[in-house]
Design a protein that fits this description.
The structure holds two protein chains of two kinds. Chain A is α/β, with parallel strands linked by helices. Chain A has nine helices and 17 strands. Chain B contains 19 helices and 16 strands. Classes of the chains: A alpha/beta, B alpha/beta. The complex binds flavin-adenine dinucleotide (2 copies), iron/sulfur cluster (SF4) and FE2/S2 (inorganic) cluster.
C-alpha cells in the first residue's frame, strides 16, 4: 500500500498528489514514470514522476481526469492508499548543457516538463519555457515553471491569459528571432508534440518528445506500448518514454491510443452510474 | 512384485480424467479437467508395476521418486505421497497440471511400451490437490539462521524454487518481483482454465509462511541494482527474470489496433482479468474473428483464451503442417473440441487496417514443406502467387519470446550470449559475476516450468555451498 500524503487541485479536474514511496523517491530521475494500480480490480496506468522529496519519502504526480482510473484517483485524497505503485520506469531524460534549451509543455504535459526543465537548468542551460493550455483555468504549474526557467512564455488557445495562440507560434517566433536553440523538449497532447517537431525539423534542432501510449506492465514484457520510431519498433516503457520527435510515427500512435475507445466509454459510464451525480466535462 | 501381480496390474485400464464438457467450458474460465477422485487415483496408481529400475525417474527433470509416491497413493496414503513428491518438487500442484509429461516421465514409463503409460502427472496433481484441500500442508522445521541473506530477482518458478530451497537451508531470502503479483508466467501467461491462479497463490503463501520475504512492485535494475544488493548485505543474488520480451514478425501493419503480442493478450486476460471487464477495469478487444499466429503452447493458450471471449471464430495460422505443431497434443485436442480452427501451411504477409487503423484482414500466403532445416523439420517455403486474405479484427502474435534485457543492461558484467540469454555454468548456475547465479528462461530462452525449477534447485545448492565456503 502506498499512502497519499497530500492532494492539491491545480485546475479543473487536474490534481497533484504526493505519495509515500521512499525508495522510488530516492532513485527517480527526470523523465521517469511510475505505473500504479488503485485497487484489486484496477487497471495499471502510467504517470510521470514530477518531483520527489527524499526527506519526506514522497513522489509527486499530477493527474488529469480523462477516464475511469484517473477519475477514481481524482476522488481520492490525503490518507487514502493506492494498492500498487511501481517505478521508477523508463529511461531518464538525457541531460547535458546544450546552451539554450527550450521546454514546451501543453496542457497536462507541463507536469512532465517541469522536472526536465529543472534538470536542464541545473546542468547549466539557459532554459526558455513555453507552456500552454486551452484556457486560463486549465493552466498548471506556472509559478514552478517560472522558477525553473530563465524566461517563461504562457499561451492560451482562447486568449484568456498570456499569448493568444499555440505554443508552437511562440517557438517559431524564437527561432525567427534568431535564438540559437540547442535542444527542445516538447510534451503534451500528441498533435501538439507533432506540431513542435514539425516546427523544429526544418532547422534540424534536436527535439525530444515524451510519448504516452497505452501500457500494461511497463517493464517491456507485453509490447502494448510499441510505437514506430525511425522506422523501428520501440517499446516506450523501456526504450523511452522520450524519443527524437522528428522520427516518431504520430499517426500510428494516435490510432493505437484509440484501440479501446468503446470500452473506455463503457467503463466511464459505469463509474458515473455508480457515483451518481458527479459530472465530467469530457 | 511377483509376475502374477504384475500381469494383473497391467490389465487395469488407464483411468479417464473427468473434464468439463467442451460446449460448456468454452463459455467460462474454470479449469477444464476436474482431477481424479480418490478411487480413480488409487486404481490408476495400481497400474504402476513398481519397476526396480524405474525409467520414469530418469525422465523427470527433477528426479521425483515416482514409484514411491505412486505406491503411497495406491495404499491410500495421499498426504504422505504429496510429501514424498515435495522432497524433490516444490510445486507439484502446478507441475501436475502444466508439465509436458508425455515428453518426460510418461514417455519412458515401461507400461507405455505396450499400452498407455501410467498417468504420472495426474497422480502428482491428485496428491498435491488432496494435501492442499485437506489443510494438511505442513511447514518444515527450519534450521537456525545462517547469518546470510540472498536476494532473488523475479518470482517465477525458478526464483520461487531457489527461495524455498534456501530458507530450508537456513538462509534469509528476499524475492523482488516487478509485477504486482508473484508467480511469473504462471500468473500472467498460463490461463486460469489450465492452471487456476488460486493454486499458484497458495504455493506462494506456503513459501511466505516458510519465511520467504516477497517484495512486489520492485523492478530490479530500476529501483535497486544487483550491485547495490551485493554491497548492501546480500551475499548472493539469483536472477530468474524470465524470457519476457515478445517477438514480432516485423511485417506491415503489425502496429494496427487489434494486433496483440500473446504476452499482452494473455496478461490482459489472466493477470488483469479483462474477461471480467467492466467489473475489472482492464479491457481487451474481444473481436469477431480472432486469428492466432504460431503453433506452440503460447499460441494454443491464446487461442483457447480467445474462444472463451465468445467471438464468431478463432483460428490458428501456422506455417508448417500439423505434424510439426510444437504445442502439446492434449492442448491441440482440447482446442479442437472447443471449436478452434487450424489454417496450416499458411503464413501472414501483412496486416490490413480500416480507415480508423483497426485490423480488418490479414494477407497470407500458402506454404509447402521443402528440405529439412537445422532443426530437422522440413522448411516451409512460400507457394508463389498463392496470396489470399483472411478476415480478422483481432490478431495475436505468438511466435516466441526473447530474454528480458533489463538485468544485463543494468549489470553489464553479467555475460550474455548473442540472444541476450545469461550464460551460466550449467552445473552450478554461476554467472560470470561473482556472487550472482541465474537459471530458468532468462538462461534457456522459453523452456518449461520444471526446467526452471530444476535450475532453481541446482542454483540453491550451489549458492548454499558458496555461502558456506566463500569460494567462487
Ligand atoms: C509514460 C507516460 C506518462 C504519463 N504521464 C501522465 C501524467 O503525468 N499525468 C497524466 O494525467 N497522464 C499521464 N499519462 C497518461 C495517463 O496514463 C492516462 O491518462 C491514463 O492511463 C488514463 O486512464 P483512464 O482509465 O483514466 O482513462 P481511459 O478511459 O482508460 O483512457 C483515456 C485516455 O487515456 C489513454 N490511456 C488509457 N489507458 C492507458 C494506459 N494504461 N496507459 C497510457 N494511456 C492510457 C487512452 O489512450 C485514452 O485516450 C502518461 C502516460 C504515459 C504513457
Ligand atoms: C503462455 C505460456 C504458456 C506456457 N505453458 C507452459 C506449460 O504448459 N508447461 C510448461 O512447463 N511451461 C509452460 N510455459 C513456459 C514456462 O511458463 C516458463 O518456462 C517458466 O515460467 C519460466 O520460469 P522462470 O522462473 O524462468 O521465468 P518467469 O516465469 O518468466 O518469471 C520471471 C519473473 O521475473 C520477473 N522479472 C523480470 N524482470 C525483473 C526485474 N528486473 N526485477 C524484478 N522482477 C523481474 C517477471 O515479472 C516474472 O514474474 C509457458 C509459457 C507461456 C508464456
Ligand atoms: S516406469 Fe511406469 S511402471 Fe515403472 S515405476 Fe515408473 S511409473 Fe511405475
Ligand atoms: S507496457 Fe508492456 S512492454 Fe511496455
Amino acid at each position: 500500500m502506498y499512502e497519499i500524503t497530500e492532494k492539491v487541485e491545480l485546475a479543473h479536474t487536474v490534481y497533484l498528489f504526493k505519495i509515500k514511496a521512499p525508495l522510488i523517491a530516492r532513485k527517480r530521475k527526470a523523465g521517469q514514470f511510475v505505473v500504479l494500480r488503485l485497487n484489486e480490480h484496477g487497471e495499471r496506468i502510467p504517470l510521470t514522476i514530477v518531483d520527489s522529496d527524499n526527506a519526506a519519502g514522497t513522489i509527486t504526480i499530477i493527474v488529469q481526469e480523462v477516464g475511469k482510473t484517473t477519475a477514481m484517483l481524482g476522488d481520492m485524497g490525503a490518507g487514502d492508499n493506492i494498492l500498487d505503485v511501481v517505478g521508477p520506469l523508463g529511461r531518464p531524460t538525457h541531460i547535458e548543457n546544450f546552451g539554450v534549451a527550450v521546454c514546451v509543455g501543453g496542457g497536462i504535459g507541463t507536469a512532465p516538463v517541469l522536472p526536465i526543465a529543472r534538470a536542464l537548468k541545473e546542468a547549466g542551460n539557459k532554459v526558455v519555457s513555453i507552456i500552454g493550455a486551452r484556457n486560463k483555468g486549465l493552466l498548471i504549474l506556472e509559478k514552478e515553471m517560472r522558477e525553473a526557467s530563465d524566461t517563461l512564455y504562457v499561451t492560451t488557445d482562447d486568449g484568456s491569459y498570456g499569448h493568444h495562440g499555440f505554443v508552437t507560434q511562440v517557438l517559431q517566433n524564437l527561432i525567427d528571432e534568431g535564438m540559437k536553440i540547442g535542444f527542445v523538449v516538447g510534451i503534451g497532447p500528441i498533435p501538439m508534440m507533432r506540431a513542435v517537431s514539425n516546427t523544429t525539423k526544418p532547422y534540424d534542432i534536436l527535439t525530444m518528445v515524451s510519448l504516452n501510449p497505452i501500457m500494461v506492465d511497463g517493464t517491456g514484457m507485453c509490447g502494448a506500448c510499441r510505437v514506430t520510431v525511425g522506422g523501428k519498433n520501440q517499446f516506450v516503457c523501456v526504450d523511452g518514454p522520450e524519443f527524437n520527435g522528428h522520427e516518431v510515427n504520430y499517426e500510428e500512435l494516435i490510432l493505437r491510443n484509440r484501440s479501446y475507445m468503446k470500452e473506455e466509454k463503457m467503463a466511464m459510464e459505469e463509474l458515473t452510474y455508480h457515483e451518481g451525480a458527479k459530472c465530467y466535462d469530457k | 512384485m511377483d509376475p502374477k501381480e504384475t500381469k494383473e496390474r497391467m490389465k487395469i485400464p488407464k483411468q479417464v480424467m473427468p473434464e468439463q464438457d467442451p460446449g460448456e467450458r468454452v463459455k467460462n474460465f474454470f479449469e477444464v479437467p476436474y482431477g481424479y477422485t480418490a478411487e480413480q487415483a488409487m486404481e490408476e496408481a495400481k497400474r504402476c508395476i513398481q519397476c526396480k529400475k524405474p525409467l520414469c525417474v530418469g525422465g523427470c527433470p527433477v528426479n521425483i521418486d515416482i514409484p514411491w509416491f505412486i505406491r503411497l497413493i495406491s495404499e491410500g496414503k495421499f498426504v504422505e505421497a504429496a510429501h514424498k513428491i515435495k522432497e524433490s518438487n516444490g510445486l507439484p500442484a502446478v507441475c501436475g497440471r502444466v508439465c509436458p509429461q508425455e515428453d518426460q516421465c510418461e514417455k519412458v514409463c515401461i507400461i507405455g511400451k505396450k499400452g498407455e503409460p501410467v498417468s504420472i502427472g495426474r497422480l502428482e496433481r491428485f496428491a498435491a490437490d488432496y494435501e492442499r484441500e485437506h489443510g494438511e500442508v505442513r511447514i518444515p522445521e527450519l534450521p537456525k539462521w545462517s547469518g546470510k541473506k540472498v536476494s532473488v530477482v523475479g518470482a517465477g518458478p525458478a526464483g520461487l524454487t531457489v527461495a524455498g530451497d534456501l530458507v530450508k537451508k537456513g538462509h534469509k531470502v528476499t524475492v523482488f518481483e516487478a509485477l504486482h503479483t508473484a508467480g511469473g508466467v504462471l500468473m500472467y501467461g498460463i490461463p486460469e482454465f489450465r492452471l487456476p491462479k488460486k493454486i499458484v497463490q497458495s504455493e506462494v503463501e506456503y513459501l511466505k509462511r516458510m519465511g520467504v520475504d516477497i517484495v512486489l512492485n520492485s523492478v530490479v535494475g530500476k529501483l535497486e541494482t544487483i550491485d547495490e544488493f551485493l554491497s548492501n548485505g546480500y551475499s548472493a543474488v539469483f536472477v530468474g527474470s524470465g524470457a519476457g520480451l515478445p517477438y514480432f514478425m516485423n511485417i506491415p501493419g503489425e502496429n494496427l489496433a487489434g494486433v496483440y503480442a500473446a504476452n499482452e493478450y494473455l496478461t490482459r486476460v489472466n493477470l488483469m482479468k479483462a474477461y471480467q471487464f467492466p467489473e475489472a477495469d482492464t479491457p481487451v478487444i474481444r473481436g469477431r474473428k480472432v486469428v492466432v499466429i504460431g503453433g506452440g503452447n503460447t499460441a494454443m493458450d491464446s487461442a483457447r483464451t480467445a474462444l472463451r471471449l465468445c467471438p464468431e471464430e478463432v483460428s490458428i495460422v501456422y506455417r508448417r503442417s500439423r505434424e510439426e505443431l510444437p504445442a502439446r497434443v492434449e492442448e491441440i485436442h482440447h482446442g479442437e473440441e472447443e471449436g478452434l480452427k487450424f489454417r496450416l501451411l499458411t503464413n501472414p504477409k501483412k496486416f490490413i487496417g480500416d480507415k480508423d487503423g483497426r485490423l480488418k484482414a490479414i494477407e497470407c500466403v500458402r506454404m509447402e514443406l521443402g528440405e529439412p532445416d537445422e532443426s530437422g523439420r522440413r522448411r516451409p517455403v512460400e507457394v508463389k502467387g498463392s496470396e489470399f486474405c483472411i478476415d480478422a479484427d483481432v490478431a495475436i502474435v505468438a511466435i516466441g519470446n526473447g530474454a528480458n534485457p533489463l538485468i544485463p543492461q543494468t549489470t553489464p558484467d553479467i555475460k550474455v550470449n548473442k540472444w541476450g540469454n545469461i550464460t551460466v555454468n550449467p552445473d552450478t548456475g554461476r554467472t560470470s559475476k561473482r556472487g550472482v547465479f541465474s537459471g530458468g528462461d532468462i538462461v534457456r530462452g522459453g523452456a518449461t516450468v520444471i526446467l526452471a525449477m530444476g535450475d532453481g534447485k541446482k542454483a540453491a545448492d550451489s549458492i548454499d555451498e558458496y555461502l558456506k565456503t566463500g569460494v567462487w
